[in-house]
C-alpha cells in the first residue's frame, strides 16, 4: 500500500508561511497585500469557491475584496471593473472566477488583467513567461502539484512524467513546470493511443482529465507517484443525497501500485488555494520591487 500524500496538511504549512510573509511584508512596506475576486452570476459551486478564497485571504492577514456582479453584466462593464482593479494600488492580485456566463468572452476578460496582478496565471503573458523560463505568475493548481512532487521526490530530474490532460489551466502548465524541473515529459490527451501503456511507463503520473476514476490500478507503474487533479461528483446513491467526490484515478486500485498518491478530496484541491495566497504575496513583493518571499 502506498503513502497518501496529505495535501491538506501541506496546504496548511504553505498558508502559515504565507501568513508569516504577509506580516513581514507589512512591516517592511507599511501596507497590506490585497486580493480582488470577481464573481459574475449565481453559479453555486463558484459562490462556494469565492467564499473560501475570501476567508483564506483574510486568514493569511491580507485584504480581500469581493466583487459580486449580476448574471447579466455586460462585457464592457466587466472590463471596466478590471481596469479599475488594475489601477487600484490596494489590489495586488485579481482573480476572475471561471466559468463566466456564456455571453461573456473569457479570453478577452483574462487578457484585460494586468499580467503582474494575474494571480491565476492564465494571462498569455504569464503562460509565455512560464514556457520560456522567465518569472511568471504560475497557475495555482499545477503550482500546488509541483510543490507536492518536490516535497515527495526532492529532485525530479530524469524522471518520466506523464501528464494526462492538456488544458491551458492545468495540463499544459503542469508539463512546463515538470520540464523546468528536468523531468522527461509526455503529455497525453483524448487522442492519445495506448494510454494505459503510456501511463504505465510513468514515474510521475498526473491525471487532469475530468473523468471519474478513469485511471485504473493496472495503468500505474509499481513505485510511481500519482497526482490526481480531477474533481468529479458521482451520481448520488439515493435521491436528495450528495454524490461522492472522486478523482480521475481509481484510488484504491492505484494505491496498491503507487509509492505515493494524492487522495480526492484532500490532495491537490487544498493546495490550489494555498498557492493562490502565495501568488498574491509574490505579486505584492514584485510590485514593491522586493525579491520573492521564501
Ligand atoms: P479540461 O476539460 O479543460 O481538460 C481535460 C483534458 O483531458 C483535455 O486535454 C482532454 O483532451 C483530456 N481528456 C478528456 N478525455 C480524455 C480521455 N478519455 N483520455 C485522455 N485524455 C482525455 O479540464 P481541466 O484541465 O480544467 O480540469 C481537469 C480536471 O481537474 C477536472 O476534473 C477539474 O474539475 C479538475 N480541476 C481541479 C482543480 C483543483 O483545484 N483540484 C482545479 C482545476 C481543475 P483534449 O484536449 O484532447 O480534449
UniProtKB/TrEMBL annotation:
Stretches assigned to the Tetrahydrofolate dehydrogenase/cyclohydrolase NAD(P)-binding domain: 139-287
Pfam families xref list: THF_DHG_CYH, THF_DHG_CYH_C
Reactions performed catalytically: (6R)-5,10-methenyltetrahydrofolate + H2O = (6R)-10-formyltetrahydrofolate + H(+); (6R)-5,10-methylene-5,6,7,8-tetrahydrofolate + NADP(+) = (6R)-5,10-methenyltetrahydrofolate + NADPH
Domain of life: Bacteria
EC number(s) reported in the record: 1.5.1.5, 3.5.4.9
Pathway field: One-carbon metabolism; tetrahydrofolate interconversion
Keyword line: Amino-acid biosynthesis, Histidine biosynthesis, Hydrolase, Methionine biosynthesis, Multifunctional enzyme, NADP, One-carbon metabolism, Oxidoreductase, Purine biosynthesis
Residues engaged in binding NADP(+): 165-167, 231
Residue span(s) of domain Tetrahydrofolate dehydrogenase/cyclohydrolase catalytic: 5-120
Matches recorded under InterPro entries: THF_DH/CycHdrlase, THF_DH/CycHdrlase_cat_dom, THF_DH/CycHdrlase_CS, THF_DH/CycHdrlase_NAD-bd_dom
Keyword Amino-acid biosynthesis (UniProt): yes
Statement: the UniProt record of this protein carries the keyword Oxidoreductase: yes
Quaternary structure and partners: Homodimer.
Family annotation (PANTHER family): C-1-TETRAHYDROFOLATE SYNTHASE, CYTOPLASMIC (PTHR48099:SF5), C-1-TETRAHYDROFOLATE SYNTHASE, CYTOPLASMIC-RELATED (PTHR48099)
Stated family: Belongs to the tetrahydrofolate dehydrogenase/cyclohydrolase family.
HAMAP family named among the record's database cross-references: THF_DHG_CYH
Biological role stated in the UniProt entry: Catalyzes the oxidation of 5,10-methylenetetrahydrofolate to 5,10-methenyltetrahydrofolate and then the hydrolysis of 5,10-methenyltetrahydrofolate to 10-formyltetrahydrofolate.
Protein name: Bifunctional protein FolD
Species this chain originates from: Sphingomicrobium clamense
Amino acid at each position: 500500500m502506498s503513502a497518501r500524500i496529505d495535501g491538506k496538511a501541506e496546504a496548511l504549512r504553505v498558508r502559515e508561511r504565507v501568513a508569516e510573509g504577509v506580516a513581514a511584508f507589512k512591516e517592511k512596506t507599511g501596507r497590506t497585500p490585497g486580493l480582488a475576486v470577481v464573481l459574475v452570476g449565481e453559479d453555486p459551486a463558484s459562490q462556494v469557491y469565492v467564499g473560501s478564497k475570501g476567508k483564506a485571504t483574510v486568514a493569511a492577514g491580507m485584504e480581500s475584496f469581493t466583487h459580486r456582479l449580476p448574471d447579466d453584466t455586460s462585457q464592457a462593464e466587466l472590463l471596466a471593473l478590471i481596469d479599475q482593479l488594475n489601477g487600484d494600488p490596494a489590489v495586488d492580485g485579481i482573480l476572475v472566477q471561471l466559468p463566466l456566463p456564456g455571453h461573456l468572452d473569457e479570453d478577452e476578460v483574462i487578457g484585460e488583467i494586468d499580467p503582474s496582478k494575474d494571480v491565476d496565471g492564465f494571462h498569455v503573458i504569464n503562460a509565455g513567461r512560464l514556457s520560456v523560463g522567465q518569472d511568471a505568475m504560475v497557475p495555482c493548481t499545477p503550482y500546488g502539484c509541483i510543490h507536492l512532487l518536490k516535497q515527495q521526490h526532492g529532485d525530479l530530474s530524469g524522471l518520466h512524467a506523464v501528464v494526462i490532460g492538456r488544458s491551458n489551466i492545468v495540463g499544459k502548465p503542469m508539463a512546463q513546470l515538470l520540464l523546468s524541473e528536468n523531468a522527461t515529459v509526455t503529455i497525453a490527451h483524448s487522442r492519445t493511443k495506448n494510454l494505459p501503456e503510456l501511463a504505465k511507463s510513468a514515474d510521475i503520473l498526473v491525471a487532469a482529465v475530468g473523468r471519474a476514476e478513469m485511471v485504473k490500478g493496472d495503468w500505474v507503474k509499481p513505485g510511481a507517484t500519482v497526482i490526481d487533479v480531477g474533481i468529479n461528483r458521482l451520481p448520488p446513491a439515493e435521491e436528495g443525497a450528495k454524490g461522492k467526490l472522486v478523482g480521475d484515478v481509481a484510488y484504491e486500485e492505484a494505491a496498491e501500485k503507487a509509492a505515493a498518491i494524492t487522495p480526492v478530496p484532500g490532495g491537490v484541491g487544498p493546495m490550489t488555494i494555498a498557492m493562490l495566497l502565495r501568488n498574491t504575496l509574490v505579486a505584492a513583493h514584485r510590485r514593491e520591487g522586493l525579491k520573492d518571499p521564501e
